[in-house]
Amino acid sequence: MANEHLLVEKLGPVLSLQLNRPESLNAFSPDMILGLKDALRNAQNDDDVQVIVLSGAGRSFSAGGDVKGMGQGKGIQVYEHIGKLNELILLMKEIEKPIIAAVHGFAAGAGFNLALACDLIVAAEDSKFALSFSKVGLVSDGGGSYFLPQLVGPHLAKQFLFTAEPIPAERLYQLGVINYLVPLEKLQEETTKFALQLAQGAGKAYGMQKKLVNKALTSSLEEILEQERLTQVIMVDTEDHKEGITAFKEKRKPVFKGK
Q1: How far is 241 from 142, CA to CA, in rounded Å?
Q2: pLDDT of residue 3
């Protein structure tokens, strides 16, 4: 489902979701969050969609929360708004398909956290990131307090959250937060190429592997070993596994169907 704040387009097996409030650097709106949730739910049930790409229209990926509307809402309104954002973040982690963030310009505040909630990040070389909450006397929302410490450690996460300093994409690439750095003019081309490459892979395995990695962040080694064992019992009966074995024996490239 599309609305004026979100552009939805299917490019073969790739679903493109583009934040579309360029006049406000794609700051979040209720319609945008609702549109993203609807699009992700639809994608989960669409066997033709194998990979999802999230990007921003105009000059930046997303400035996060809409500063113009801050300071006007009561506590209960803020609680409800962030509750809807939380539903989106949880849905992004639960959907059994890879989500790639294609970031250019600025990814600030909850916009940065939205990128962190994706499974992979491709970023333009000159892009910048910032957790700007402390500049307006707020704490991180959208999962930044959870995602960032696991990626860069608690000390560096606190530095970024306390200082709200702009972080060059190159530094986040070196820290392992960003997967690929590309020139701005090639961002769309390279992200699409990467997405199509993933879409040709074993989609069912991707989805189950995503769940295992996400569970590993809050589980013991013993729990993950058992989850791997139980999941593998399911995987050996999938069409993709059978196709992979057949293709290996026939010395050809497998044709996976995500089933």
Answers
A1: 36
A2: 84
- Are 115 and 61 within 8 A, CB to CB? yes
Residue 67 and residue 106 in contact, taking contact as beta carbons nearer than 8 Å: no
How confident is the model at residue 67, as a pLDDT? 67
Half-sphere exposure for 112 (CA within 13 Å, toward CB)? 28
pTM: 0.93
pLDDT in the model for residue 1: 45
Give the sign of the dihedral formed by CA 17, CA 18, CA 19, CA 21: negative
Q: How far apart are CA 61 and CA 113, in angstroms?
A: 11
**What length does the chain have?**
259
First to last CA, the chain: 25
- Give every residue of the chain whose pLDDT is below 50, as ranges: 1-2
CA dihedral (34, 148, 151, 53) in degrees, to 10, reads 20
Question: Radius of gyration (Cα) for the chain, nearest Å?
Answer: 19
| Torsion on CA atoms 225, 227, 232, 235, rounded to nearest 10 | -150
Task: Give the Cα separation of 121 and 62 in Å (integer).
Answer: 14
CB 115 within 8 A of CB 107: yes
Cβ neighbours for 123, distance < 8 A, ≥ 6 positions apart:
101, 102, 103, 104, 169, 172, 173, 178, 180, 181, 182, 187
DSSP structure string for 75-90: HHHHHHHHHHHHHHHH
